[in-house]
Design a protein that fits this description.
Blueprint (H helix, E strand, L loop, with lengths): L1 H18 L15 H8 L4 H34 L5 H13 L2 H14 L6 H24 L5 H8 L4 H30 L2 H6 L7 H10 L7 H31 L2
Helix pairs in contact: 2-11, 3-6, 3-8, 3-10, 4-6, 6-8, 7-8
């Protein structure tokens, strides 16, 4: 039963990868070919596709970095410090995870219009930070749950300041959770369509928006097989990034 679920889960990816090597333009198999990879890397037809991919990559990496910094500091503050309205703030930070994306997208669009901020990659960047922070908070706080607070007290007894305790004790221990939160934020940003659809302006097309418009309008200049080829490149890059981050975290803990 479990293997059936795994096969069902990965079968669409296998089909996508297989048809990226199809010589034809349709789902009818016409033979093995690297034609679409040649088109992807060397043809002018793929310029807009690569531009959309670049927009997605820039927004994903920058928004994930900012949301990881804010979310990590917020998680540390919420977990260790006591202040008024702490519970209310915790609940408020998790609400965006429960609200449907279409509601968040429409509300952010209305906010940007109200403050006269033109829809662009900047608004996409802000929107992605907004929905990424709760996920970062959740992951980092889960890591901090297993942390022994007496280590912080020992550091303070030895003369460590708040900043020293943060940089030398708390952050190294929370680092695996921080890396995991960053990768989740990058993934959520790369694949987001609904929120981005409402907050992106002209010339701010991300990869999901471009793929959607290409498929729904049946653009003859960008065949589906070309998108399949790019998808394989993205999948391979994601796997490499995940393996590298895993090895970095493993090396850091072995070297301590």
């Amino acid at each position: 039963m479990f293997m059936s679920v795994i096969i069902f889960l990965y079968m669409p990816l296998v089909i996508l990868v297989a048809y990226s090597f199809n010589a034809g333009r349709t789902m009818a198999w016409e033979g093995f070919s690297l034609h679409w990879y040649s088109e992807l890397f060397f043809s002018t037809r793929s310029e807009r596709l690569w531009m959309s991919f670049r927009n997605s990559a820039v927004v994903a990496l920058t928004s994930a970095t900012v949301s990881t910094i804010i979310g990590t500091l917020g998680a540390i503050g919420l977990y260790w410090y006591k202040f008024r309205c702490k519970k209310a703030i915790q609940v408020a930070t998790y609400i965006p995870m429960l609200v449907p994306e279409i509601i968040i997208g429409v509300s952010l669009m209305m906010l940007f219009v109200r403050i006269s901020l033109p829809l662009s990659l900047i608004t996409v960047f802000i929107a992605h930070i907004t929905f990424n922070i709760p996920f970062v908070l959740l992951v980092v706080m889960a890591r901090l749950e297993s942390f022994d607070y007496t280590i912080i007290e020992a550091a303070h007894d030895l003369g460590a300041s708040e900043v020293k305790a943060l940089t030398k004790v708390i952050l190294p221990v929370a680092f695996p959770g921080i890396i995991s939160a960053f990768l989740i934020a990058v993934t959520l940003s790369l694949e987001d369509f609904v929120i981005t659809f409402f907050v992106a302006g002209p010339g701010a097309s991300t990869l999901p928006l471009y793929i959607h418009s290409t498929i729904t309008r049946s653009n003859p200049d960008v065949p589906t097989m070309l998108i399949n080829a790019l998808s394989l490149v993205v999948i391979a890059g994601t796997v490499v990034l995940a393996l590298l981050s895993r090895n970095v975290v493993k090396y850091m803990f072995q070297s301590k």
